[in-house]
Amino acid sequence: MLEALSYHFIQNALIAGVLVSIVSGVIGSLVVVNRMVFLSGGIAHTTYGGIGLAIFFGFPIFLGTSLFAVGAALFMAYITLHQKERMDTFIGLIWAVGMAIGIIFIDLTPGYHVDLMSYLFGSILAVSKEDLYYMSALTISIVGIVSLRYRDILAVSYDSQYASLRGINVPFFYTLILVMSALTVVIAIKVVGLILVIALLTIPVYIAEKLSNSLGKMMLLSGLLSSIFTLVGLYFSYQYNLTSGATIIIVGAISLLLFLGIKRLIK
After folding, report:
1. What secondary structure does DSSP assign to 130-145, as a single string?
2. pLDDT in tens, 59-100
3. Which among 75, 198, 261, 263 has most CB atoms closer than 10 A?
């Protein structure tokens, strides 16, 4: 593996993996604490519509996907805040329609033969320098926002009624968390794909939650665990010519099983 580090695509993959791991640790913690896993899953699959539109109109993939994902997040935030009893129905509908839009626009794109696997299961070894710039900008922005408004986000995440009494705009921060989740999904698609992105957002967080006594520590630890899973997964992917995204998730899943087993033995 050491000789592989001399290749630029491996270097890009490692940097991308660490960036996505950091932001996944931060946002994944918020997703779990706010019980948004199903919502984030809906956004992840809906973003396929953005991929199709970007390819059809010739936009950069990240740009088209980000705009589509943010639009889906805003719509889902509105539905969950105003139509809670219909939430599951609307999420399932957006999920299916988003993917259908993506497939149709890809079919309509003349002369374009898309590799569906790269979007469904990730293609971290194909990360370019331009992709890294975009990932870096989003990671810095998301981590910066969470750091600056940490107390408000913490209050909204654990006790929205108390936060509202304190004068915090709960709907705004709820929507903000969903939008940041959508952007995290967008950059994580390049690493693990839209099918597996929820696992990256939840597996490290589950372990970190059991080992932490605060949201901040959970974010830091889940980011560290996610980085380890990503780097180890990349190693096995390179060594045995396996799909990188799936390998990263399998490493995380095995780690979770080992953690649960050790925890049970200790008890």
Report:
1. HHHHHHHHHHHHHHHH
2. 888 888 999 999 999 988 888 887 766 677 778 888 888 889
3. 198
